């Protein structure tokens, strides 16, 4: 085929396959297009192949592999599973597979074939396309380098996502000591190729590669787990090993007719997840050069300040609605807080649990009503914010978050860096984004007292935009807080009648939120 003919063929292919946002899945109809292998090979070439002059040299070399017999057996089993009728094609595929896996051993600087890498499973959908060896190798290596997780934290990432979207199921699996690493290893490390039928995995890879979002594999995995929740609960008393096998085989039940719904559910969970966790905090998962960042130690899903602010101001597409809880003590909240944040003093969980849960009841009522009415500052996604500095203060915030997780609250997250990160973000961008901000009492301002705080007023377009965002955040929060304070006032009136010898801790310019047995004689003077 001439270059002109080849170019024309590619244009026709792109027109046929990529008419709808370069994806085999039509967003309007929700139906994906089943692609013939001839077209699939061309499509995958476009998505995976990179120019590399050293590839042919690598393929021509035949390094010595100690356990070459095991490699050859695995390759023979793989080719047999493809049920290729033509003997010559079968021998060519076998030869290509062996040569490619031997070359991969050289790439990894090892003289031993590593069974745990599951290379035969990964190369299965690619070798089934019967492409030239050099194309098959290049595509396989691209998948290995770009789409396979390189850190064990990937399993903790999946658990955090499950905790965010289905905390009850996550808590059950935790109680049974069934971490994702026990049943999802083959899912993540082979992109489901080891467990799904060839027909299904080819279609999934069509969509997955066209989407160009390697983190999406975790949302696909999430769908399998959550969809099996009833089955998992019914089997919770079964032996652990049996549960591991059942969970591990979940993708094998997926049929070609299920892919539309399967993919749509994964996209739903993706859109319902703050993007900063995946893109920023967990971004190292696919980079072998970066160190682990402690996802295994995270209590819940963390969210960055920029992500929270952008969603709050609806500056991102499909923005999430957050209900922000400021878990700092009242005096710190009164000295500055995010306009849409509601006070929930974490110290009261230990000092006065009754008042704490009374306030929580009011917050839950306000959250539900505000979300239904579409009010700003009211959302179904909970975001808890602590001080951001100080071990004891953050431990109190963690206790509050744990209490909500134990009640199986959906969409629970923590602001990464807490109030400290918020303060630094607004200061850095010259945004007047905090309500009731008193520099003489704000803990962060006091901590920064040795630094030069005088800033020249910026008038460029970026800072004008930030200023408008700050004003919008403040103005939109009052309507939601009004109804919340009415609820809390009525509840705390009854609490006060029961506590005749006590006084209430007050938040500035707000009705009493909590009632505790301690003196607060300086309240009025602090609030002015």
UniProtKB/TrEMBL annotation:
SUPFAM superfamilies associated with the record: Rhodanese/Cell cycle control phosphatase, Ypt/Rab-GAP domain of gyp1p
Organism superkingdom: Eukaryota
Coiled coil regions, renumbered to chain: none
Domain Rab-GAP TBC: 34-212
Organism of this sequence: Aphis gossypii (Cotton aphid)
Annotated protein name in UniProt: Rab-GAP TBC domain-containing protein
Any one of the GO BP annotations: vesicle tethering to Golgi
GO cellular component: cytosol; trans-Golgi network
InterPro entries: Rab-GAP-TBC_dom (IPR000195), Rab-GAP_TBC_sf (IPR035969), Rhodanese-like_dom_sf (IPR036873), TBC1D23 (IPR039755)
